[in-house]
Amino acid sequence: MRSNCLLAVALVTSALSGVQVADAQNVGATGDAVSSATNAAVPVVADQAERLLRQMGEYVGSAEQFTFHADITFDHVLPSGQKLQYSASEDVALQRPGRLYVEWSGDLGDRQFWYDGKSVTLYNPATPFYATDAAPADIDAMLDKVVTQLGFAPPLADLLYRDPYRAMRGNVQYGFDLGMTDVNGRSCHALAFVEKDIDWQIWIDGGPQLTPCKVVISYKTQPSQPQFSAVFTDWDFAPRIAVPVFTPEMPAGLQKIPFETVSAARLQSGGGRCSNGCHTGRSGPACYWQVPLWPHVS
């Protein structure tokens, strides 16, 4: 995914020695990829894994609009090292070039994010505050700004770029194809990738719509190796999205605060680092939304 700090995939490294692939060709490709990765300085990715990831990126990135739902789990690591798992759901509505709405509902609270081509707005219904700032006119530039300047990004942001393949592939050291598996009744290609700081898997639908079925990320350099996972459903590439969906709708009397204040409040509240130590497109929820607008996970 997009930063060396890296997601929003599963425990790839620990699974390397135990993975069994029924297809002999996949077994050979996996072995070659792992063997080559240990002996080469350049990234090594099995051809099938490279092709499927690229095709998924082209399919999703070429869409002018789409909606999807994701059921999410993520870990919170206590000072003792114990991992607590929380759940959430996320609904996304996107229209290019410059409209995005993300709604999150979870164990640690709800969040709403609007982008209308001119500004971004972040709101936690449990607080009397909201944050807003000017934004570029297209989604890619907006995401780059909120990550680099405002210190957050919507969860699963890599899939919202015009080129998801580039956003996800950049820091991969090696990867391989695990064959076909079932995800909630869908036959999906299972791919595994390794980066410096994370291991991740992605399952891609084997049908005509080359959409993600599932992603799992393991932050292997963080204490207790917390995980973030998302299972996707309800992909729709011809949705009827009303324009007001992308316009902030909040109760009267809220106090507007700048994102700088949100970041400061996070530090004052004792919030530590994000799951992977930075604010990027594939990190856990704490990295996507700053406290108090987003729960702290790690």
General description of the model:
By secondary structure, this protein is an alpha+beta fold. It has a single domain, classed as Lipoprotein localisation LolA/LolB/LppX (outer membrane lipoprotein receptor (LolB), chain A), CATH 2.50.20. The protein has 7 helices and 13 strands. It has a 13-stranded mixed beta sheet with strand order 1-8-9-10-11-12-2-3-4-5-6-7-13. A hairpin with a 2-residue loop joins β8 and β9. The longest helix is centred in the first third of the chain and has 16 residues. It is globular and about 55 Å long. 43% of the residues are buried.
The CATH topology:
outer membrane lipoprotein receptor (LolB), chain A
* CATH architect. name: Clam
What percent of residues are in strands? 25-35%
Rg calc: 19 Å
Unreliable parts? 3-30, 34-38, 262-298
Class by alpha and beta content: alpha+beta
Number of strands: 13
What's the CATH C level?
Answer: Mainly Beta
Q: Tell me the number of structural domains.
A: 1
Q: Work out the helix count.
A: 7
What is the 3D shape?
A: globular
Percent helix: 10-25%
In round numbers, the mean pLDDT is 79
Largest sheet: 13 strands, mixed
- Span between termini: 20 Å
Strand order of the largest sheet: 1-8-9-10-11-12-2-3-4-5-6-7-13
H/E element string?
HHEHEEEEEEHHEEEEEEHH
CATH superfamily: Lipoprotein localisation LolA/LolB/LppX
